[in-house]
Write a structure and sequence with these properties.
By secondary structure, this protein is an alpha/beta fold. It has 16 helices and six strands. The two termini are about 55 Å apart. About 0% of the residues have low confidence.
């Protein structure tokens, strides 16, 4: 205590007191005035009543915040693969059970144990068959979790706690040392009040109790928020790493095109006599699938608004997966991959193309009801994609072609309102859309009727493009996870080569040392 006083300049302390004395005198002078006016008890009663109302409102707000999640708390990453969502549910349940009494903020060892428990829950989800799943985390990834969770928690404290940027740890320690002395002085003051003015002491004790409960509740809420946010931050980054969503390097997975896209962009540039330099980042890959002569190449031409792909008027026109580079308003650079009929594609080639796609555009003819083979192919693709828990399946849109060949055959007067029950053509189109959605087991909202005949192109520029743009968010998430997989493989080999090279240089220089 004496050392603390010696460090304080008495003249600065005197100047500070001169500033604060007039403000500190307001309270006793105001109390004296209220007593002289005979309204001191009225003021004290109002103080207790308003404090009780404030405490009740604070209690109600606290219950309301516990019943509904706030927007300020850490949220899951929407770009996570499906298996990460169950891991986040475990983290959220654990965070909801945290109480400050069980995990005191002042105990660093307990806080370390809290982070360890969070990591164990995430590790146990991704490695359920391992006895000690936490040890499956590499040392660089562990340091990365601590680094990024601490950074985010620092930002949260700086943004949400007043004067946190000015409050030092030393100030908190010194204030804590003054606490016993201040409590003794407060005890003497309260004892003197009971002797001098019992009525005032009763009201003052009631007000102090309510105020203390309110402060304690606010303190508990702040500690609870900090602890739960720490759990969520650690859990979020742990899920990022265990699910493969967080890389050791800071490189954006979409900043460079993948090897497959580089080759496809080069092929597209050659066929279109364009510059083969390609985009800086990874393009969106749209795969067009369907049976032969369903209108896949015609649909590609309609999407471009000009002739790019050879049409299916002659059987076996499209013999290999053909990429085309597409740039349109509202859509970043994309690759449309026109595939031959699915019955001509080998099983392995079909699944490789689907795995490398971010959106699948399935083309099916409205006047061909024999869709058993299409359903079998789609089911096989969906089964294979659902087994990849670390990747999101690409969204699926179905284009129903040849709607101009539906009954009545000679009628063609678009546009058609499919809710119109007096128009036979509209009823036929609606029936074809419903039947195809049922046969292929896809949502009816994802089935778009189009006409691709020369001079009759209909419903491509508006409805099909609107549906495609509506699936962009899901397609981008699928692209991100696809690129993360490739970046992770490249990162593993790059780090291994760098480590071996550095180790070799160290061993070569060791004799000289």
């Amino acid at each position: 205590m004496n050392a603390l006083f010696k460090r304080i300049d008495r003249w600065w302390l005197a100047a500070l007191l001169l500033w604060t004395v007039p403000f500190l005198a307001l309270l006793p002078l105001g109390m004296l005035w209220l007593r002289q006016e005979g309204v001191l008890l009225v003021w004290l009663t109002a103080l207790v009543v308003f404090s009780a109302a404030g405490y009740g409102m604070q209690f109600w707000l606290r219950r309301r915040e516990q019943s509904c999640p706030t927007a300020d708390q850490t949220q899951p990453n929407p770009d996570w693969p499906p298996d990460a969502e169950a891991a986040w549910a475990l983290v959220e349940a654990f965070a909801g059970s945290i109480e400050p009494d069980d995990w005191p903020l002042g105990d660093g060892q307990q806080l370390g144990l809290l982070a360890q428990r969070t990591l164990e829950k995430v590790a146990g989800h991704f490695h359920p068959d391992v006895d000690r799943p936490l040890l499956e985390l590499t040392l660089p990834h562990t340091l990365l979790i601590v680094e990024r969770a601490s950074r985010d928690l620092r930002d949260s404290i700086t943004e949400n706690i007043p004067y946190s940027h000015r409050l030092s740890v030393g100030a908190l320690v010194r204030a804590y040392r003054w606490k016993p002395f201040a409590e003794r002085l407060l005890g003497l003051y309260r004892a003197g009040q009971w002797v001098m003015n019992p009525a005032h002491a009763v009201l003052n004790e009631a007000w102090a109790h309510l105020r203390g409960r309110g402060y304690a509740m606010a303190q508990q809420d702040l500690a609870r928020w900090l602890l739960r946010e720490a759990v969520r931050k650690v859990g979020r980054y742990a899920i990022d790493i265990y699910s493969g969503s967080l890389l050791l390097t800071d490189e954006d997975p979409l900043s460079r095109a993948t090897d497959g896209s580089v080759k496809d962009l080069a092929v597209a540039a050659e066929s279109e006599s364009e510059n083969a330099s390609g985009p800086v980042g990874e393009p969106l890959r749209i795969l067009v699938l369907g049976r032969a002569n369903a209108g896949k190449s015609s649909l590609v031409n309609a999407l471009f608004g000009q002739l790019r792909a050879a049409t299916d008027l002659v059987p076996d026109t499209t013999r290999a997966l053909t990429p085309y580079r597409l740039e349109r308003e509202g859509l970043e650079i994309a690759l449309i991959l026109d595939a031959p009929g699915v019955e001509r594609l080998a099983y392995k080639r079909l699944h490789e193309a689907a795995n490398a796609a971010d959106l699948i555009l399935w083309v099916s003819a409205a006047h061909r009801p024999d869709r058993q083979s299409e359903r079998q192919t789609l089911d096989a693709l969906r089964t294979a994609q659902s087994a990849r828990v670390g990747r999101r399946p690409p969204p699926l849109l179905v284009a129903v072609t040849h709607i101009d060949r539906l009954r009545p055959l000679r009628e063609w007067q678009p546009p058609y309102d499919l809710t119109e029950t007096r128009n036979l053509k509209a009823m036929s189109i609606q029936a074809a859309v419903t039947a195809l959605a049922t046969d292929l087991e896809v949502p009816i909202a994802s089935v778009i009727p189009v006409c691709l005949a020369e001079g009759r192109v209909y419903n491509v520029e508006d409805t099909l493009w609107a549906a495609l743009l509506g699936q962009l968010d899901r397609a981008r998430r699928a692209r991100l996870l696809r690129c993360q997989d490739e970046c992770r493989r490249k990162e593993n080999w790059m780090l291994l080569r760098r480590q071996l090279a550095n180790a070799g240089r160290f061993l070569l220089a060791l004799p000289g040392r």
